[in-house]
Structure formats: structure tokens, C-alpha cells
Design brief:
41% of the residues lie in helices and 20% in strands. Strand 6 and strand 7 form a beta hairpin. The structure holds calcium ion.
Length: 227
């Protein structure tokens, strides 16, 4: 596997450089941005594996950056905060961050958190199959089976199922799924996702009639129900 790419968004140069050095020593590739409003343009060109996101940033507040990212991407985000009050905001607002770290921190602690989040969110990174809810998805053969029977998925259905199966119980908005399945700049309709989900459910139900593996959250999106 290639070195995971970590994006550091931090306006204090000393901290940013320290983090970058530690990440690189620990086997990661790291990029630094020093403004909140340069994150979205960066993400149009790059796909980092994790983002360390400071909250107090020039250009755009880290909270707003996080919300913007969540409109189209499930990339792991660790918020970095200097103030205890901000922790309540991070948790209370449910802005979609995966973890947070308080300043001052030890670089060692940051590395441990980065590792933990990557491990938690990408448990199948190096594996070829994902198994959940009685369904087995093989990334190499692109075959998905339930109870040993082939589901005969279309490429889009396969990509969609792969995204939600890789993150059981995480709710994905239609927007996020459109972008994950069709690519970032795809100008598609959210309805496309609804029809893919409908077909997926039908195909799964034809083999596992009692399994409710794909859940819908009203007004939010879809998730894969873990057993
Ligand atoms: Ca700052």
C-alpha cells in the first residue's frame, strides 16, 4: 500500500512543521495548508487519507471547513482545538469530525490518534473482501455474494454498496454517495442514488428476504446496518 497522505491545516507554522516531521518519520506523507479557505480547492486536486484540521484558521473557520467537506466526502477528519469550549461545539454540533485533539498536544499523541482513526475507518484497507450482514464483497473480482449466490450488481451498484459496507452504521448523505460513486464533479441527481439503493435492496432481498441491510434515515441518507 502507498504511504497514507495526511493533510495538515494549521496556521501556526511551528506546529504545522512539527506535525509534518513526525508524520513523515512515522511513515506518512504530509501536506500543509495554512488557511481554511484553501482546503476546498486543494481537495479538488488531491485525495488525502486523513485531515488534521485546526479550528481557528484565517479565511474560513475549521468548523465550517469540516461541514463543507462532509457535503461530498467521508475522508477521516481529526479536529485540533486550543479551547475546551470548542470541544463541546465539536461534539454538540455533530459537524461530522471523527475525533479531536486538544492543544497543547504531544506529536506522539497525534500519531497515535491518526493511526487509530485510520485503522477504525479503513479496517479493510489491505484486504480484498468485505464481509458484513451476510454479504461478501470481493474488490478484486468485483463479485458480491449473499449466501454464496451472486447478486449480479451493476458497476454503480457495486461502488455504492462498497462505500456503505466499508463504513457500517455510518450515515451517508445522497450527495456524498453521488460523489463517492460517480466522482467529485459529477452533476448527477440525488434520485439516481435512490434508484440504485432500491435495486440493491431488491437484489439482496431476492436471496436474503429477511435481511434489512440497507437502512434509510429520513432526511439524512443511507447506511449499511452492521449485525
Ligand atoms: Ca490556529
Amino acid at each position: 500500500m502507498a504511504m497514507p497522505h495526511i493533510l495538515i491545516v494549521e496556521d501556526e507554522e511551528k506546529i504545522a512543521t512539527l506535525l509534518k516531521d513526525y508524520l513523515e518519520k512515522s511513515g506518512y506523507r504530509a501536506s500543509i495548508l495554512d488557511r481554511g479557505d484553501s482546503v476546498m480547492p486543494f481537495l479538488k486536486q488531491h485525495a488525502p487519507d486523513l485531515i488534521l484540521l485546526d479550528i481557528m484558521l484565517p479565511g474560513m473557520d475549521g468548523m465550517d471547513v469540516c461541514r463543507e467537506i462532509r457535503k461530498f466526502s467521508g475522508v477521516p477528519i481529526i479536529m485540533v482545538t486550543a479551547r475546551v469550549e470548542e470541544i463541546d461545539r465539536i461534539i454538540g454540533l455533530e459537524i461530522g469530525a471523527d475525533d479531536y485533539i486538544c492543544k497543547p498536544f504531544s506529536p506522539r499523541e497525534v500519531i497515535a490518534r491518526v493511526r487509530a482513526v485510520l485503522r477504525r475507518l479503513n479496517p479493510v484497507r489491505d484486504e480484498k473482501t468485505i464481509t458484513a450482514g451476510g454479504i461478501e464483497l470481493n474488490e478484486e473480482t468485483r463479485q458480491v455474494t449473499a449466501g454464496g449466490k451472486d447478486l449480479n450488481l451493476t458497476p454503480n451498484e457495486f461502488r455504492l454498496l462498497k462505500v456503505i459496507m466499508a463504513h457500517p452504521n455510518r450515515v451517508f448523505s445522497r450527495n456524498e454517495l453521488v460523489n463517492q460513486v460517480q466522482g467529485y464533479d459529477y452533476e448527477g441527481y440525488d434520485r439516481t442514488i435512490d434508484s440504485h439503493i432500491k435495486n440493491l435492496r431488491k437484489k439482496i432481498a431476492s436471496i436474503l428476504p429477511d435481511a434489512e441491510v440497507i437502512g434509510s434515515i429520513y432526511g439524512e441518507g443511507y447506511k449499511f446496518n452492521a449485525d
